[in-house]
Amino acid sequence: MAASHIRVTPSGASLGASVTGVDLSKPLNADEIAAIRAAWLEHLVLAFPNQPMSHADLERFTQYFGPFGDDPFIAPIEGHPHIIEVKRAADEKASVFAAAWHSDWSFQDTPPAGTILHSKITPPVGGDTLFCNGYAAYEALSEEMKARLEGLEAIHSAALAYAPDGVYGENDAKDRSMTIRAAPEARNTKAHPIVRVHPETGRKALFINPGYVKTVKGLTDEEAFFLLVELYGVTHDERFVYRHKWQSDMLLMWDNRCTQHMATGGYDGHARLMHRTTVAGP
């Protein structure tokens, strides 16, 4: 059986699985890559524990799943234009980065298909990442709501986070160890269908998130607000959420096309460092 040494253990939640039996510091063969992709599409979030990796290893693994995505607003590490650091110093007082539900770069014309995050320094407490299942949320909607959403598009923008006056804007930079590049371009908008058909699985998922969605095309702001609040209430229901607990040298990959995620804190006084890449869409 192809790649039979790879073991996939579901988390028991609505999404998420752990993958063992493979060494990501070495090149993978076609059967191994296919097995990981199949598991990724099935479980949406995959965790690979005990995977010490170099920058080159992370770059090679990422490209098994597609070309690198474009990561705006955050400076890459020197010599590796497709790797960004997600870090927090032990004495840092800035807000926890990405501590709101979002799908990475959903404001882009073609948002990234996936994100890959490798832990380098992991605090002994806190720092969990939450994920929710956009497929399950869509399927939980009433037939009436599904019909209402057909053809509706949400307006996505990075303004709230990365505009000069945003959460990570000019007033934030002096207190943060990450190198974030806020810019006026963050105010640009892009419309995407609220109900997205996944290009690989063909399944429908809710593709909205409070981090980057401003409003709904064709609705008043008030109408959009109440619709989005109702949809978020379903999407973020604990039935559809997986809480991921990190270990050092763990690699995590997730499907941005059908999930949202958010960081959590709880590790003040401890440093945290991760390296991140994105896989280009669709």
Blueprint (SSEs and pairs):
Blueprint: E1 7-10, E2 17-20, H1 30-43, E3 45-48, H2 55-63, E4 76-77, E5 80-88, E6 114-121, E7 129-133, H3 134-140, H4 143-149, E8 153-157, H5 159-162, E9 189-193, E10 195-197, E11 204-206, E12 213-216, H6 221-235, E13 241-244, E14 251-255, E15 259-263, E16 272-279
Parallel strand pairs: 2-3
Antiparallel strand pairs: 1-2, 3-14, 4-5, 5-16, 6-14, 6-16, 7-13, 7-15, 8-9, 8-12, 10-11
What features would you highlight for this structure?
282 residues, alpha+beta, eight-stranded mixed β-sheet, three-stranded antiparallel β-sheet, 6 helices, 16 strands, 20% helix
Please explain how this structure is put together.
There is one protein chain. The mean pLDDT is 97. Helices cover 20% and strands 28% of the residues. The strands form 4 sheets. It has an 8-stranded mixed sheet, with helices on one face. The protein is built from 6 helices and 16 strands. The protein has helices at residues 30-43, 55-63, 134-140, 143-149, 159-162, 221-235; strands spanning 7-10, 17-20, 45-48, 76-77, 80-88, 114-121, 129-133, 153-157, 189-193, 195-197, 204-206, 213-216, 241-244, 251-255, 259-263, 272-279.
Write a brief caption for the model.
This protein is about 20% helix and about 30% strand.
